[in-house]
Amino acid sequence: MPGLVPSELETIQKILSSYKDIEGRPVSGFAIMRYGGMEVLADITDEQFQIMNDCLQLVCFAGLAKRAYFNSLGPYCNSDCFTPYGQRYSGSQFTAVSSRRRDGQASDMRSLSKVTFSMPVHVNNAGPIVLDEELLSALSKFRDVATLQQWVRWQNALACYNQANTDNEAVRHRVEWVLLCSAFEHILEARSDAKDVAKQFAKVFVAREPIQIQNAKRRSSSWTNPEEHLRYEWMREFYRIRGDFAHGKLISQQPAVWNVLEHLVLGAVAFPLMVRCLLQGADHYSLTEYDIAQINCFERLADEQFLEDPADQRNSMDSVWSRLLSEERMNVVTQRAIESLELKGFFKDTNLANES
């Protein structure tokens, strides 16, 4: 760990010796947070810790936004991978162990040699964690120029998205569902109404060739406008069913085109892409070719039985999502190349651009 003197390193290693993986071995990877220019082992106040935690929410979101779906070898994390741990340590062989109670907090002193903080299984099984640094930078810049009211709304939305992506078995799907819908509603400044949330989402999240429901494979008798786009109807259903869970129903009896896991996967994929679109609209981010490819094939993904393996699956990495992305990324690269050549006047005296 660069920048640390031997005495600091020794203390950190002593504290971290209590943190174990699921096989009982000391954790091999971790991140250390420090407040501003303070020393890494300096005492911090509760207020300073809260500020650090707010910043950690942005880092967490940048990690979740970089996840590779249906790819066991790609980057993958959950929000519990970013759980902050803080301990009071006075330099002795004892440490303060605290836990939250409904009526306050419980805390006592324990011997470091006898304390074990075990890594949760769903954190241990996460893949390599990669941050979308461009997105993180854009969020930081936007935070600096946004009004307080605007940033509080974004902060709430990002926190809801993070909490909906813990992978913790103790967090039920209906809780994740409500949190995801709240994230969309907050950041879109939409009313608590399925049609309005869907309308605002469809306005921000625009694909190159959107699918009208009259041309979709998936069907529903509640889809009355054949020219409406599939992303609108997905969000309308997603938010409509959310009302049952938000009002205490454990199981929704409403008819649905997508099942529970399909809805949650689509929500997890769509939200970070929508945030990128909003940041680009605010001139703080430029969509990458990969971003555009994901946006362009989102409706195509929603129109497929994407949780199932392709009938002619070639290998374990082959999925509906990977095929759609591969095809669309090629389309995006080709289109950008044509646009670049057009700007240079390459097609000025030819019909090649139109033919392409």
Q: Can you tell me about this structure?
A:
With about 350 residues, the chain is mainly alpha-helical. The protein folds into two domains: about 5-125, no CATH class; about 135-355, no CATH class. It has 13 helices and five strands. It has helices at about 5-15, 45-65, 120-125, 135-145, 150-165, 175-190, 195-205, 230-245, 260-280, 290-295, 300, 320-345, 350-355; strands at about 20, 90, 95-100, 105-110, 115-120. The strands form two sheets. It has a three-stranded antiparallel β-sheet with strand order 2-3-4, with no helix packed on it. Strands 1-5 form a two-stranded parallel sheet. A hairpin with a 4-residue loop joins strand 2 (about 90) and strand 3. Helix 2 (about 45-65) packs across helix 4 (about 135-145), helix 5 (about 150-165) packs antiparallel against helix 6 and helix 10 packs across helix 12 (about 320-345). The protein is globular. The termini are far apart. The model has no long low-confidence stretch (mean pLDDT about 90).
Tell me, briefly, the overall form: globular
In terms of quaternary structure, the protein is single chain
Q: Work out the strand percent.
A: 5-15%
What class, by secondary structure content? Answer: mainly alpha
The main sheet comes to: 3 strands, antiparallel
Number of helices: 13
Q: How many discrete structural domains?
A: 2
**What is the β-strand count?**
5
* Low-pLDDT ranges: none
Query: How would you write the strand order of the largest sheet?
Result: 2-3-4
